[in-house]
């Protein structure tokens, strides 16, 4: 994508206000919102093994990880228990198409056991609602630096034979041919939603000033702009309670209609591999001293293949996975 100049004062004067970043989450598209589905793995079984492949554009390249925490799905609960666990991580050049049912093959020769097998105390929690918090933080024995280009994370819960479900369903992203869309980070202005079919994608803004200018900002990232963490508070620029939530790589000008709404539709040939797009709108506003307000952010996965991969052993053990590879994946928080 090409970067265009955004004629908004908070970009023109530079960014220096108070940041409000989320805890680092992978995949990146999972930051700032729950994913809407749930899975028994990685910590929702008393035994078994699960392995995730994360694509390079969805991981924080260069970060040194000292703790990880599988994120429970929205409103999930845990009664608290002790669980055997071993965690292995591997930077890998393995592409999505090369991720198979072989645990060892996917990890490759550079795999690092970052958490040696032992009992982990999983605390009790109820109706989990914080997408910036896991159910339990697992401090690593060995800090792990993510250098990519892709990443494999392996959770071994001990033997799967005789394992049963346990109360800790993980937050899960699933894919579909028409795309998946989420919203996060309410801002000071109107609202933005994204929808798609197999042939197009539509962004719809509501709550703008009637018949006044508005802009749609699109990006492939929502974690940083010019090295500054996102979302970013813009109070210092006369925009109280406003957030910049995407790196505005593409800016498309438009005009709100008589009801303050704006819709932009783009033809879509479903991409392979799946493409992740982040969106946010800015519009005129008399309620904001600077005269410009921003909407919430949208997070979209367009396409149904090549974004993520997942294998697991549910009831049997062995060097090859009982299930997968599947085109879905759980969310993990890093420190």
What can you see in these coordinates?
The protein has 2 helices and 25 strands. A hairpin with a 2-residue loop joins strand 14 (224-225) and strand 15. It has helices at residues 9-12, 103-107, and strands at residues 25-26, 37-39, 49-54, 64-70, 81-92, 112-122, 138-145, 150-156, 170-174, 180-184, 191-196, 200-206, 213-219, 224-225, 228-229, 232-233, 243-244, 250-255, 262-267, 275-284, 292-302, 308-313, 323-326, 328-330, 332-334. The protein is elongated and about 65 Å long. Residues 1-15 have low confidence and may be disordered. The longest helix has 5 residues, at 103-107. The two termini are 30 Å apart. It has 335 residues and is mainly β. It has a 6-stranded antiparallel sheet with strand order 6-5-8-3-22-23. Strands 10-21-20-13-18 form a 5-stranded antiparallel sheet, with no helix packed on it. 46% of the residues are buried.
- Summarize the amount of helix as a percent range: under 10%
Strand content: 35-45%
Sequence of strands across the biggest β-sheet: 6-5-8-3-22-23
The largest sheet, given as strand count, sense and whether it forms a barrel, is:
6 strands, antiparallel
Mean pLDDT: 92
Q: Count the beta strands.
A: 25
Uncertain stretches: 1-15
Termini distance?
Answer: 30 Å
Order of helices and strands: HEEEEEHEEEEEEEEEEEEEEEEEEEE
